[in-house]
Amino acid sequence: MTKETKVRLISAFIVAPFVVACFISYQSLIGLVSAIVLLASSELLFATLKKHRKNGILVVYIALLSAFPLFFGIWFLEQPMELLSVLYIIGIVFTLFIVKNKEIVMEFFGVYSISFIYISMNLSFFIPLYKFYGAAVALLTLTLSWAYDSFAYFFGLSFGRHKLSKVYSPNKSYEGLLGGIFGTFVYTLIYFVIINSFFNYSIPLWYSIAFAIITGIMDTAGDIFESAIKRAYGLKNIGRFMPGHGGMLDRIDGLLFVAPVIYIFLKLFS
Fold first, then answer.
1. CA separation (Å) from 220 to 69, 73, 92, 191?
2. Fewest CB within a 10 Å sphere: which of 21, 32, 225, 255?
3. DSSP character for 173?
4. How many Å apart are CA 16 and CA 198, to the nearest integer?
5. What sign does the dihedral 206-209-78-132 (CA atoms) show?
6. Tens digit of pLDDT for each residue in 242-267?
């Protein structure tokens, strides 16, 4: 085992139990989502805009992005678009007052807009997942990404031959994708059997097939999307929040695409 692998494992064993513990209550989940949005959006915003030395506007952006899941979960669960629109407009108006250089203003608009949809809104899907489908389903959504990444890494390392994205993520392979989907299917099937048997759930077991396919496709797409951002900036990692893992955004990139689609699937089929 390499030194880097040991560091990754130690970091994971420290952070993972804390994250899982936050699923004990609805309130702690809201706090967790808001905190992760704060960290992940900070990484993307500073990586993009720190060269302009306007830290005040970055603080405002981060506050607005972090406020969305907080307000959404507590007061606006039935009116998410109204809340999203108001907070978004506040940030845009603030930008117009602070950024006076028309050569760079679109850069501020762009990364703020991406951060709102990509990070704050997408991660906030955990809130209705928890509220309407229960803690076990919300926790499963989180661990789906962990399971898929682990299985995809193993199968890709062992059998990977055909590259999935040579430009943005050359280490990914179709073998890793298919192996990850298979492993995630087995994990999800076992998870459903356990919660159906010992808790108050009656989830159809065929959902495990859908969840595995959704996770494989969306997690991979999310990872490649974030890899494209890093390559555009010439960075190995967006941040350094977790030793051996990179930044917070590096840890949740796939999850940001998985959570919304899992919620939409459940809303359509449950």
1. 25, 28, 31, 22
2. 21
3. E
4. 23
5. positive
6. 655 568 998 899 999 999 999 999 99
